Amino acid sequence: MCDAQMWRFGGTAIEAMLEQSFGQPSVHVDTRNGASLAEMASRALDETQGAVVAIGFSMGAIVALEMGALAPDRVRGLVLCAYNAGSDLAARSPHRLRQQETVLSGGLDRIIIDELKPVYLAPANRTNEALQSEILSMARRLGAEVFVTQSEALRSRPDRIAALAGLACPVLFIAGEHDTICPIEWHERWAELTPRSTLKLVPGAGHMIPMEAPHAFSRAIELWIADCRERYPTWPNES
């Protein structure tokens, strides 16, 4: 339930860094539709051209991994932030169905305010009214139908842990110190399984890392890009 505004909570830091690093503006792909995350990934590939470095947060990170699996010849790097490579947790699946029913009955605000925001943010950020307001505004802009579509895509997603070992491109995992949705322990495991991986912990952040710590998030990607270019001189254009 995030749109392009998520990347702009810290001003232009993230987008400006990416444009300076790659010499062209970043592309915001549309994840509002699609019966599955693989379908969303296929659409994302259709909306872009040539070599791609896919940067995804939470559900977007799962879509980014699918992009890498669908088009390994095009995807030359992945940034997977607040990421879960596994299928939906057994305890979370029925909870999603209940949330979907509530949202379709007009309860989108209640789900976002009462159930999602409290666990999305680090304790120190739970009184940040500007941050909370923007999270709610994004959800309202996307609406109930998108909530159900994305929730169901997440609920029915396959386990992709085994796919990590087959990734040939460099991968940056970014985890929030206080993320209880996708904790640091998960990211440590994903990094161990991924051949060309880098893991960055963002202190003080919860799950909403690009909004809670946009400058730290941007700097982590900037340093990773520089490191990739030093370690792999032809990156991101290597075959």
From TrEMBL:
Source organism of this protein record: Novosphingobium fuchskuhlense
A Pfam family annotated for this UniProt entry: Abhydrolase_6
Top-level taxonomic group: Bacteria
Entry-linked InterPro entries: AB_hydrolase_1, AB_hydrolase_fold
Name of this protein: AB hydrolase-1 domain-containing protein
SUPFAM superfamilies xrefs: alpha/beta-Hydrolases (SSF53474)
Annotated AB hydrolase-1 domain residues: 38-219
